[in-house]
Amino acid sequence: MTHAAHIAHLTHASIELMDERDPLADLREQFIIPGGVIYLDGNSLGALPKSVPARMKQAIEQEWGIGLIRSWNDADWYLAPQRVGALIAGLIGAQPTEVIVCDSTSVNVFKVLVAACRMRPDRSVIVSERGNFPTNAYITAEVARLMGKTVVFVEPSEVDDAIESAGDDLVAVQLTEVNFKTASRYDMAAITERVHALGGCVVWDLCHSAGVLPVDLNGCDVDFAVGCTYKYLNGGPGSPAFLFAAERHLHQVDQPLPGWHGHARPFEFVQDYEPDPGIARMLTGTASQLGLLALEAALGVFAGLDMHVVRAKSVALTGLFISLVDTELAEFGFTVESPRDGTVRGSHVSLAHEHAYAITQALIARGVIGDFRAPNLLRFGFAPLYLRYGDVWNAVAIMRNVMTTAAWDAPEFLAKKAVT
Amino acid sequence: MTHAAHIAHLTHASIELMDERDPLADLREQFIIPGGVIYLDGNSLGALPKSVPARMKQAIEQEWGIGLIRSWNDADWYLAPQRVGALIAGLIGAQPTEVIVCDSTSVNVFKVLVAACRMRPDRSVIVSERGNFPTNAYITAEVARLMGKTVVFVEPSEVDDAIESAGDDLVAVQLTEVNFKTASRYDMAAITERVHALGGCVVWDLCHSAGVLPVDLNGCDVDFAVGCTYKYLNGGPGSPAFLFAAERHLHQVDQPLPGWHGHARPFEFVQDYEPDPGIARMLTGTASQLGLLALEAALGVFAGLDMHVVRAKSVALTGLFISLVDTELAEFGFTVESPRDGTVRGSHVSLAHEHAYAITQALIARGVIGDFRAPNLLRFGFAPLYLRYGDVWNAVAIMRNVMTTAAWDAPEFLAKKAVT
To answer: Which end of chain B has a smaller Cβ tally under 10 Å, C or N?
Structure first.
């Protein structure tokens, strides 16, 4: 390392020691990590668990190819949404019967938010965050339109006041625990308690929480939650989302996409809808089996893991990155846009820079894969199951090199791609 | 064949000749068909095209495993919903820019039916069929509830009258072209014309049409259509559904699940929703990539196919089956519940029988795979791309044997399975 002089309290040797002492170090062997890549985008698409290819070969060639329609029974396809939901329940503080895997996060936000409106028919205000992931804003606004409610979008610092202002007119609060840009984390327990004190419901989005933070839905008395499975849960591109509905609500949940798989007796093909008594009432159409089965195999890496240990490594990785950015990249104009307090930070770190897009592309070309978030953020995710402290060290060294040589200032890095 | 004496005008030799002269005979080689199986359930889950396993291995191991997040650009994941939609468009008489692949059929019915309601805000009646596939009934009733409309569910023979009765209060007609039980086929052109004459919209469900009938959406001036891809399109278990919206409507389609992938500029992450100008506005959340890529590979078998040739074989296969049921199984109490007129029959045939469930199970145990539809139907699908006339002959021979020996009257065939 030629940049050792820039580092105050961290040395390459100390980093090596952190990796040696890492209780999760062995997990990296369960993933495919391509050579020459430092993958800092597990918060967007998790790496491929090694268990997945063989499972998918079996699912496609044996279960589909040979079993054909029989596999809905013989290979237990039919109960996959519940079965995979139960695996995720264990990671988010829910009962196995409270979580189901289906559809996309957007569709699931729609289901639970309409259901929440129907539980509070005489109230009119939904509170959400202006900087929430856009799909939450779009779906929440649409739910309000359909149900005749009003959405108040506020800054994170104004959420408490907005809840108090809504008072006994509060229907629900829809927030994402960890912000997709800043990684700032809400206090789920405190906000949920405040909302309940006013008689409202909470709908928590766990997209950037599940699989990397110890979430305790029932401990926080949460009403509804949703989340995607292709980030820290490593389910693969576009893997189906999950949905949590608290047991105490299930018997009365009245969701707006009552497809046949949510029926109490779907294979009787009756004319009138009667919801399943349990979590299956949140289903709509036929489950995406290939996505479900890949996700189920991927979740095997979480067996027996203590999420507090995962969290501790996550905080250490992001903290190390911020320290190295401070010491190694001080002169290049980056601003840390994520909380410096690890307790309120998720597992990614965003840096603002006027040339964020081109720098991101230049880093990707050098094997340091993060992503760009408009208008000016470089976003780096730190997945504790397969990242090493040494990866963080090396990533910053490459960033320093890219900035020192202005390697990002080339036409190929300035031209925008469809997905950034 | 020991039952030759029962056959009047059909002989084994004539069946062999039909297979020899079949212009689609070579297509069977493009599918995995397990030994010992006569697969008469391609109307529920299509057989596995041989192209799929290798494509999925590449998608999982290379695109996900090595490409990681880069594959959204580099492997063109991002445009898969449009790209696969364009392939399906060619099979249903649509422009490539009018079809997109996403979500489930149920979710897509919801999207287009709400959109139709918003196009006819001052009207109040939706017409649908009482015997429609249940998910259509459930979703249609829910749309009516959310949008303040009334649904009139009628028998197929009453559809025309119900449309006339609704008159200038008609919002939309939601029908499935080919009934999932009887295989009875509506006259799409005539009904659509009648609905348009009254100023209403049509929402056609093509689940039992796409890939087996020559559908002509634009020739019929259809407004909206949806359908699944795991039946005759062979996309695999739970593969994503398709959605058609006529070009003339697209600029004004206002759908109720406006997720980020439907936004005009999703990667700018702006707070306010602005729909994509084209068919992508029908998208909601992140696409199910594994399902999309399997489907894309599966659709390769349709390249260059003339759907009228496929239809001719479909009519011949179902007609042969009905003839053989008439001659071979006359004494066993089956009633043909599908139209005998091939022009108004889809590609499956349903037989009523008081022991339908047990007989279906006994046939499956003998390798003749059909399915049971409550309360008393045996349903047999005839996929022209991989079924031979000889398969139909052999299936009926096995049915005769099962009935003659009463092999179905055993405990293992009487016990119900979860999915039937």
So the answer is: N
Task: Please indicate, yes or no, if residue B210 is contained in any of the structural domains.
Answer: yes
Q: What's the number of domains chain B is made of? A: 2
Structural domain for A213, as ranges:
53-302
Residue owning tokens 């449009």:
B82
Q: Two tokens at B234?
A: 């062979």
Given A252, A275, A302, which residue is the final one in a domain? A302
A159 plus A286 within the same structural domain: yes
Strands, E assignment, B27-86: 31-32, 38-39, 48-49
> Residue written as tokens 């006027």?
A354
How far, in Å, CA of A31 to CA of B247, rounded?
45
Q: Does B241 touch chain A (CB under 8 A)?
A: yes
| ipTM score for this prediction | 0.96
What is the residue-wise DSSP string for B305-345?
Answer: --HHHHHHHHHHHHHHHHHHHHHHSGGGT-EE-S-SSGGGB
Q: Give the C-alpha separation, B94 to A389, whole Å.
A: 53
CB contact A305 to B (< 8 Å) = no
* Residues B249 and B291 occupy one common structural domain: yes
> Catalytic: B205?
yes
**pLDDT for res A10:** 79
Which of A282, A302, A322 finishes a domain?
A: A302
Q: Nearest to residue B14, comparing CAs of B390, B312, B382? A: B390
Asked if the C-beta of B210 comes within 8 angstroms of chain A's C-beta atoms, the answer is no
Structural domain contains residue A419 = no
In a domain, A112, yes or no: yes
Q: Are residues B74 and B122 in the same domain?
A: yes
Q: Are residues B137 and B279 in the same domain?
A: yes
What residue type is B196 in one-letter code? H
Q: Which of B153, B136, B123, B125 is nearest to B225 (CA)?
A: B136
Shared domain check, B319 and B298: no
Q: Which CATH number goes with the domain that contains A146?
A: 3.40.640.10
Q: Which amino acid is at A393?
A: W
Residue with tokens 């196995």: A96
Q: How many helices (H) and strands (E) does chain A have?
A: 14, 15
Tens of pLDDT, residues B347-390: 999 999 999 999 999 999 999 999 999 899 999 999 999 999 99
Where are any strands of DSSP class E within A83-182?
99-101, 125-129, 150-154, 170-176
List, for residues A273-332, the tens digit of each pLDDT value.
999 999 999 999 999 999 999 999 999 999 999 999 999 999 999 999 999 999 999 999
Phi, psi of B400 (to 5 degrees): -60, -40
For residue A420, is it within any domain?
Answer: no
- Residue B137's closest chain A neighbor by CA? A271
Distance from the B11 Cα atom to the nearest Cα atom in chain A, whole angstroms: 30
What is the sign, positive or negative, of the torsion defined by CA atoms of B346, B349, B354, B359?
negative
Which tokens in the block code for residue A116? 């929440």
Q: Are B188 and B282 in a shared domain?
A: yes
**Residues with Cβ within 8 Å of residue A147, at least 6 apart in sequence:** A114, A117, A118
Instruction: Cite the beta strand spans of A29-149 per DSSP E.
Output: 31-32, 38-39, 48-49, 99-101, 125-129
From the candidates B345, B379, B388, B400, which is the catalytic residue?
B379
- C-alpha to C-alpha distance for B217 and B332, rounded to whole angstroms: 41
Neighbours of B29 (CB within 10 A): 9
